[in-house]
Amino acid sequence: MVKKLTSKISFLLAISLSALSLSACSNNNSSQSENGASASSASTESISASSADTDSSSSNEDISDNTTSDIVIDDTEAIGIKTVDSNGDYYKDKQVYVQKIDGLSEDFMRGVDISSFLSEIESGVVFKDYEGNDIDSQGFFDLLADSGVNYVRIRVWNDPYDENGNGYGGGNCDIDRAISMGEYATNAGMKVYIDFHYSDFWADPNKQMCPKAWEGMSISEKETTLYDYTKESLEKLKDAGVDVGLVAVGNETDSGMAGVTSNSEKCKLYSAGSKAVREVFPDAYVAVHYSNPQRDYMEIAKMLDDTGVDYDVFATSYYPYWHGTLENLTDTLKNVADTYGKKVMVAETSWAYTLDDGDGSGNTVGKGSNDDSSEYSISVQGQSEVIRNVIKAVADVGDAGIGMFYWEPAWIPVNVYADTTDNASDTLKANSAAWEKYGAGWASSYASVYDPDDAGQYYGGSSWDNQALFDFAGYPLYSLKTFGYVYEGNEVEGMEFEGALTPSGITVSLGEDISLYLPKTVKGEYTGDVRLDLPVEWDDYSNIKEFGEYKLFGTVTDILSDEEDNTSRVIIKITVLPESLLENSDFETGDDSGWLLEGNGPWVDTEDVYRGEYGLHFWSQTAVEFTATQTYTAIHSGNYTASMMIQGGDAGDDQVITITVTNETKGTSVTAETKVTGWLEWTNPTTDVIEADAGDILTVTIYVKGASGAWGTIDDAYLYIE
Ligand SMILES: [Ca+2]
Ligand SMILES: [Ca+2]
């Protein structure tokens, strides 16, 4: 990482990076940076299956001819390929090992979002029970309840239809369809979470489009209209007897809601929605929902508090491949809960059991896409562990942690598609027709009038079929039963310990307490794709006293074994940064003390830091151009070097980013350049050495020039002597 440092590695502990195999376990930073390619500094995953998720080659065929929608496809051949793993074993037969969660409340919301369900059924999808029998719609909801699910989440769009009544897709989720699904859920004894998007189609961190009928309204008109719409919709649910237990006013509303973008206007709309919920369902929770627990949730919660928004639950999405560690999830939610007296929950999560695509429309998680996290295996067991561990992370908040919802576990292929089969093109044609006619895909071509840039370009099928809790042919996976298993745990036969996975490396500054950064557990691997958090005792590291890169061994204990010899060894990479000669190199004072900031863009903030709590964040609506400068008087003669960590995006082709050390006394300077390439894609520009004598004046200058809208973070800006 800090390339210049290797020259000073202690001989005893010296290692070459190439000799240390860390590839088995990619770290969090790399998995998050997968996401950077998709653009903004907010969490950029469009789980509604946007551009990157969708196979445009298949989705842009002419599929407007509805007459093909009733082609009957023989799934037999495709099923043989797509419903078994590489060993030829059926996914549906895979039992799951589940660690019991002690003390989990019976009331804990163990939910699933089944918003696409009706469109699936209308398209001819048939779900099965664990014995392989076909089940009807009520049977499907009963199966969820029997598996331990006690809550169902349903999204609601205002008017997801074009002027001719053609659905936009994604389940065509209007209020009437929410009522139908809500009735099944209520009949099955489950409660319902209504997820208003306040849009005619997908609302997420990237888009919060105004409903067509609300275009051109002033904010006060929107408040009234949103209140009326919410009240009317909820009254319909109430009249139908749907057991609504929670209502979210907006979906992943990080960047706005219903076409408004300012916090003050957004809060007015939250309040209008909340007022309607209180009137119709006084016992229901009111939730707000944001997308990424790595964001500044404390500032958001403060803003909501300052504005006086009346809500009960601060909800977040948490996708393990995008949204950081479970520890951070728990800590962030606990902070909000403790400080503002709110309940907290995870409104969306999921995990893949295969990297295959089942319907001919590309998936969000696939080969080379969001698949490099090693916390969990891509397997039915991996899904189970995500469900169990996310529930536990929320429950670990305490009484305020009230629930977890799995996103779209039933969004499976209409017909199982495999490009290797003879009927592949017919299958894709039939699927495409169902996406068009019944809304079983993420978007139909009809959505282009409303959402031309995303749906209009990339309309197609399910980007989520491999993250479902049913296989491609409709058989339930045992991962679904995790919702019930968490109370008592579930054993599987013949599970054996295979060893510990190499953990992510850590970075500390010289003089910092390494124990604060060393993980207390590492992942242990067992047969059956099982990965458990196992306690680790690290060897003595008191001899790490200089900067450089080190490896440290630890002893891992297999918690499932009673044998005496139940341990194995593991290695962690430790990068010790030099002691910086600059003041506030890591920005951990929480302000710009020590630095002279000049120009447009930078401020010290908590968002997207490299290390610690703070970094030097930058963003501007207009062109970004600034310098951050600090001067140091050399105490010793020697070779000096400067480096920094930087990430960001949208800086344009003409961006210039440099870090320079100038010896003002001698009139010499050295510069290192870099570019920002995406969210959390950190680079580490490091200058060549520059000579200085004692008493020379050295100036370190960070210079950033980027297009309007450029954003990013600088952290750990160092000057050191070799
Ligand atoms: Ca797919
Ligand atoms: Ca920092």
TrEMBL record:
Transmembrane segments: none
DNA damage among keywords: no
Enzyme class: hydrolase
Domain called Bacterial Ig-like: residue spans: 507-558
InterPro entries found in the cross-reference section: Big_4 (IPR011081), GH (IPR017853), Glyco_hydro_53 (IPR011683)
GO MF term list: arabinogalactan endo-1,4-beta-galactosidase activity; glucosidase activity
Region (Disordered): 28-69
Signal peptide (UniProt feature, chain positions): 1-24
Key words of the record: Glycosidase, Hydrolase, Signal
EC numbers on record: 3.2.1.89
GO BP: pectin catabolic process
Reactions the enzyme catalyzes: The enzyme specifically hydrolyzes (1->4)-beta-D-galactosidic linkages in type I arabinogalactans
Protein family membership: Belongs to the glycosyl hydrolase 53 family.
PANTHER family reported in the protein's UniProt record: ARABINOGALACTAN ENDO-BETA-1,4-GALACTANASE A, ENDO-BETA-1,4-GALACTANASE
Stated name of the protein: Arabinogalactan endo-beta-1,4-galactanase
